[in-house]
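Dig into this one:

. . .
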Amino acid sequence: MEQLMFFKDEGQTPGLPTDLLQYHPNIFSAEESDTILKNLIQETPWQQKLVKMYDKEVLTPRLTAWYANEDTYDYTSLRRSSPNVWTPQLLTIKMRIETFTKAAFNSVLLNYYRDGNDSVAWHSDNEKALGTRPVIASVSFGQIRTFDIRRKDNHAEKYSLRLESGSLLLMKGDLQQHWEHRVAKSIKSMKSRLNLTFRVVI
């Protein structure tokens, strides 16, 4: 399997080392990816949450759903709430990812980007509930979107990677402490994309 090659400026300069990020295309075939995309869009109880931004509440520019073991809670909420129960399809995907990464996960956050207007702003997954050096497996289905990453202390050091359908991006080590990432809006016409981030909530 191909590992991460991050590049600056149209693919000229090698970027981040694989002890922080690893990119693996084709973990799922095109046929598998299309089926998963269709099923999850139709069957998932999607929510559009309110988040506080500049002293006002706004709707997140994407739909989300949270699945986890029964003893795991939604760590991103101000109040603890029960997650959705694992579906057979999500458990199958989880087993595939766990076998490939040799890591175990107890939860998954689903993000549904309906078109190019949907996005996620700069952030890092550094909540206390994830531990200090979390391993996060990010799986993409559907439309290719660009994943940007930059250093927190030097925004000029920025890299980008196109996340293909059926691919896995493995984030680990000190990445969440020193780097932040986003999926920006696009002015181009975009089809639906799903992103599943498997993680361990402790």
In short: Residues 62 and 171 are 22 Å apart (CA to CA). Residues 7-199 form a domain with the Jelly Rolls fold (CATH 2.60.120.590). The helical segments are 30-43, 88-101, 175-178. DSSP finds three helices and 14 strands in the chain.
